[in-house]
Amino acid sequence: MRLSHNALPLAISPRRILPAAICMALALLAGTPSLSARAATQANAEVSPRVPAGSLEQALSAFAEGAGITLSYSPEAVRNVRSPGSSGGGTLEEGLAALLAGSGLVAQKTASGYVVLPGKADSSVQLAPTSVDATAVQSAFAPVSGYFASSASSATKTDRPITETAQSISVVTAEQMADRKVNRVEDAVAYTAGVRVGGSGLDPRFDTIAVRGFATTESADFLDGLRQAGSGWLALPSLEAYSLERVEVLKGPASVLYGQISPGGMVNRVSKRPSLDAKNEVQVQAGNYNHRQGQFDVGGKLDAAGDVLFRTVGVYRDAEYSTEQMNNDTRLLAPSLSWQIDPDTNLTVLAQYQERETAGSPMFYKEGDHLTDFWPGDEYFDKLEQRKWTVGYEFEHAFNETFSFQQNLRYGRLDTTNQYLDFTVNDDGHTFDRVASGSYEDMSSLATDTRLVSRFATGDLQHTLVSGVDYAWLDTALEYAFGAAPSIDRNAPDYHQPVARPGTVLVDRDGLEHRAGLYLQDQIELDRWRLSAGVRRDWVHVRYDDNLNGNDSNTKTSDSATTGQIGALYLFDNGLAPYASYATSFLPQSGSDINGSPFKPTEGEQYEIGLKYQPPGTRTMLTASLFHLTQTDVLSRDPVNALYSVQTGEQVSKGLELEAVSDLTDSLRLQASYSFNDAEVTKDSDYKGKTPKNVPRHLATLWLDYRLPMGLGVSAGARYTGSTYGDGDNTFKNEDYALIDAGVHYDFGGGMDGVRVALNARNLTDKRYINCQDGYCYRGEARSVVTSVSYRW
């Protein structure tokens, strides 16, 4: 969380000629306060944040985070230098001068931010104000230019450089998502090391993401550091990628800060929020499968001093998928407001409203070993309809140079209707008898995280101690029913037959879940060492009331667990940072064994060693990691009674991940990864020694974006997914496949500066692949082509 606003004004270039489509989009925003006034307000009118005394590197990072500015420096110039800190409240120049007092360094303003230079009396380090040989200090919550992100918050709940974090973490910036024109978070992380997407083919109902061989769809789905609650049936939220500033993927167990979670890791979505570094944009899109979309992202100051900022993101999409009966419709509005109450206190309010509709079941009919193009659903009945709204805040107050109080809270409601048709094939081979199924869920949720961040020293040790309590409450109502449905003829399909809402109720229950946790994590700096240690205690209470069968069928379960994490990292002067870490996790399970005893949570344990490398003065991050991850207490078939399960299973994933993210030049950007995962079921009643189904051994990606002179740019990428087993016995194998993505864009200049025309294609070669699991087969997404016109200012 940032303590204060971004301070760099953005000049507005005059525009004379705009495409007609952009002018129409701008007309929709009539009445929005003009942002041209920001050019008249200079950075020295902004208020600098309070920064405690400590190492100069840490002080500069905290200042850049608090002020929301880009701050560059030579690593050699600030290494092992102490800073007296800054009391805050003055201008940015006064705050930087206070931080640098006695160091022989000065801060100089440039067109792209601030740069720290040697004073006139010190010529030992030479750094020109416009030199690219500078390390940019970024905020993990503010906009990032390009693909490279130097900081992240998910691993520590503080804004911390990735090279100083003893865990593997990847960041997908908004610019990466924009260049690839992705709408879903699943597609946004498709180029990230260790991440498998598309495990269920094209299933637009929710994001299907697995990290290091373990699914994160329900248990590790986070927004702004707070869990996005899901009911565990089909009421799972899905966010538009355009509403996000970035997506952070933290790999490995993360229970010490987030409680119950997948052992593979977590996916943290970071919302767009008010920032003077953010550019305004309107965009219109058109593409195949009747794709029509409009979106905007506007914001700025609501007062002359810039103490109150706003930002609003909107998306409207009317589209289909390659199966024309499958809708891809979305309406989203996400306003936010940030208020710098005083130099020590900041409040950001975030809200979102979204409606979306897509298919309720993406399955196709499989004939022998061949997956046909026949879809046995109904366009009117088969659907997933969701209506979601959330509202929350992020609050921070600095009591003094040592203690800061932070609280995040979000309340929301999610209503889901999921209807689909199951089928059996008639004896004639072309008539399909169908049964209607429906899942109707209403859910309310509250999530809070309250913490105290303490920055202090004990001798030579510099501490950032995060102590907190988080609490989540989830209230659900579920009805699951089935009923009769008309048959369909494969030879002459009618996708618009009357299908009544299912009337035979199988499940009618109310659920109430409480999750609470106490945690403590210390991040320690000792010279070039970065050490971390944390511990957490969790409590989970779940109650289900059965409205069909009465009190005898009501259930209550309570679980608790203690988890921990330790890590060590060493920073070399040449940019290398080797690290080692150990972490544990837990994940509650539903159901009970043959004796009626509730299943206990599964447990995760990971050992990891790795090497991070950020060449000094570059915007490049290279990461290599080796991991050994074990999940125990996995459900396995009861050898005495096959209708029940016992918790004797165990699964191990061990492997290698390589990742490179770089803004190589102002014109060339790169993202590349390779992942090797040797996964094995090490304990099980039936599948010991087998490879877990749907876990590929190899993953590889490469994406390049190159901007040619005169405004033209081209981009291309490839995503390779290795073969997977489709059953626990490893008797059936899904073939490997590679998908090609590409794009071309043109940026106008002169009087049309800020206008971009782009053409993007996903799965350019229209590779048709399928993925089968236990007899159910899913088709991958076909080629999609989107052309767009946007205007940024």
UniProtKB/TrEMBL annotation:
Keyword Nuclease: no
Signal peptide: 1-39
NCBIfam families tied to this protein: TonB-siderophor (TIGR01783)
Sequence ranges assigned to domain Secretin/TonB short N-terminal in this UniProt record: 69-119
Summary of the function given for this chain in its UniProt record: Transports the metallophore pseudopaline, which is involved in the acquisition of nickel and zinc, and thus enables bacterial growth inside the host, where metal access is limited. Is probably involved in the import of pseudopaline-metal complexes.
Localisation per UniProt entry: Cell outer membrane
Homology family: Belongs to the TonB-dependent receptor family.
Name under which the protein is recorded: Metal-pseudopaline receptor CntO
UniProt source species: Pseudomonas matsuisoli
GO molecular function: siderophore uptake transmembrane transporter activity; signaling receptor activity
InterPro entries: Beta-barrel_TonB, Beta-barrel_TonB_sf, Plug_dom, Plug_dom_sf, Secretin/TonB_short_N, TonB-dep_rcpt-like, TonB_sidphr_rcpt
Lineage: Bacteria, Pseudomonadati, Pseudomonadota, Gammaproteobacteria, Pseudomonadales
Transmembrane segments: none
Keywords tagged on the record: Cell outer membrane, Ion transport, Iron, Iron transport, Membrane, Nickel, Nickel transport, Receptor, Signal, TonB box, Transmembrane, Transmembrane beta strand, Transport, Zinc, Zinc transport
Top-level division of the source organism's lineage: Bacteria
SMART domains: STN (SM00965)
Alphabetical GO biological process terms: nickel cation transport; siderophore transport; zinc ion transport
Membrane topology according to the record: Multi-pass membrane protein
Main location (coarse class): membrane
GO cellular component: cell outer membrane
Transmembrane in keyword set: yes
